[in-house]
Amino acid sequence: MLKMPMTYEQALDFIHSTYKFGTKLGLQNITKLLEFMGNPQKGLKVIHVAGTNGKGSTCAFINQMLIEAGFRVGLYTSPFLESFNERIKLNNQPIDSEELASITEFVKEKIEEMLRQGFSHPTEFEVVTAIGFEFFKRKNVDFVVLEVGLGGRFDATNVIENPELCIITSIGFDHMDILGFSIEKIAFEKAGIIKQNSKVILALQRYKEVKEVISKVCKEQNAQLIEVEGNYHVLKNTLDGIIFDCVTPRGIYKNLEIKLLGTHQIENALSCIYAYECLQEKYDIKIEALVKGLLNARWNGRFEVLINAPLVILDGAHNVDGMKVLAENCKTYLNGKKIVAVVGILKDKEYEKMISLIKSVAQRVIFTLVPYQKRAFSEEEAIDVSKRFGLEFIADFKDAIRYALSVCEEDGAVIICGSLYLVGAARSFLKSMFDVL
């Protein structure tokens, strides 16, 4: 009997069924799976990006710059906002559902071979990473901009042996139960992507200990450390975008414009500028590609103005440092506006600190449940949190958003934040509600 090819729905079912294998940090499983697949990751030109905050935005800037330079660029990020396919892209186009199904079927067959030979089953992230590498190989991409999933040292993406560039974005406190409870331990895990004789761009950091750890690892690996300097001057900073000048040890850049909002996005753009200067040594990348890349880069769900009237902003601030930045952005862009915040936080986060931060800028805070997540608060737990912090509570995020819109003043703003999972679900809901995008 002829075997029917795997459908897209079956592919997603298979991928998500591997969630039960948990999070196992280490490279043994992914290395073995990729060997069974013929090592599709070998030969790819990879820009590897680790860090706590700013990874996605930095990837978006670099990805767009390389596209503007005329390259075929693979982009691998996580998590997705609205559709699983967003995690694996070619020149900003998510992987086609049919191709995702075909590659997933191929990977599943290789996993079955692994199991027959006595090896362990890969985790969900390892499976998705393997699918990404296979897709990029089949599409013969010129570059892959590869975002680390968790940590760096034992993350599945760290099977890459000779990256074109390693970039380490702002490091802060997140996933401490896995990565460690000191900034030095977290930085050490992120520094695990640094390979022998590689070039390492270190973004601006909030903690001085990070630089010490990264510098030590670079010396051990004989890697060239390039530290981003914060020499920039903001010319315009409104909800329409940011225009700035900056100076690096190699160049002067005038009137650069980005549409991603917040001064932290200038810092992420600086990492892209330094990446441009490094890549330009080997590849034909003109200054115009950098300028257009910065201008045209988009990264949804990060202080994203989704709707102008009423003003609705989405921000996947999912840890304390992210929430600090969100609070700063509210003061910069929404000064004088009464803010109604819809907040959903996973219970393994430092939610007390995060709630205090959003309460410092919002006049009303509505606590809601993060949908479709096993790490979400139960309704009883969320009610308890709401009582302790004096928050309004509405269990269903859609009802919470409707209510926030109904109580928001005409010149006020609604902010939806606390978890990317909430932001992604809210984005889909609001798009259908307002018929936008």
TrEMBL record:
Domain Mur ligase central: 49-275
Cofactor(s) listed in the protein's UniProt record: Mg(2+)
Domain Mur ligase C-terminal: residue ranges: 301-419
GO cellular component: cytoplasm
Listed PROSITE patterns: FOLYLPOLYGLU_SYNT_1, FOLYLPOLYGLU_SYNT_2
GO molecular function: ATP binding; dihydrofolate synthase activity; metal ion binding; tetrahydrofolylpolyglutamate synthase activity
Enzyme category, top tier: ligase
UniProt keyword terms in alphabetical order: ATP-binding, Folate biosynthesis, Ligase, Magnesium, Metal-binding, Nucleotide-binding
InterPro entries: Folylpolyglutamate_synth, Folylpolyglutamate_synth_CS, Mur-like_cat_sf, Mur_ligase_C, Mur_ligase_C_dom_sf, Mur_ligase_cen
A Pfam family matched in the record: Mur_ligase_M
Keyword ATP-binding on entry: yes
Signal peptide: none
Pathway note: Cofactor biosynthesis; tetrahydrofolylpolyglutamate biosynthesis; Cofactor biosynthesis; tetrahydrofolate biosynthesis; 7,8-dihydrofolate from 2-amino-4-hydroxy-6-hydroxymethyl-7,8-dihydropteridine diphosphate and 4-aminobenzoate: step 2/2
Enzyme Commission code(s) on record: 6.3.2.12, 6.3.2.17
Catalytic activity: 7,8-dihydropteroate + L-glutamate + ATP = 7,8-dihydrofolate + ADP + phosphate + H(+); (6S)-5,6,7,8-tetrahydrofolyl-(gamma-L-Glu)(n) + L-glutamate + ATP = (6S)-5,6,7,8-tetrahydrofolyl-(gamma-L-Glu)(n+1) + ADP + phosphate + H(+)
Gene Ontology biological-process entries: folic acid biosynthetic process
Homology family: Belongs to the folylpolyglutamate synthase family.
UniProt subunit comment: Monomer.
Protein name, per record: Dihydrofolate synthase/folylpolyglutamate synthase
Species annotation: Caldicellulosiruptor acetigenus (strain ATCC 700853 / DSM 12137 / I77R1B) (Caldicellulosiruptor kristjanssonii)
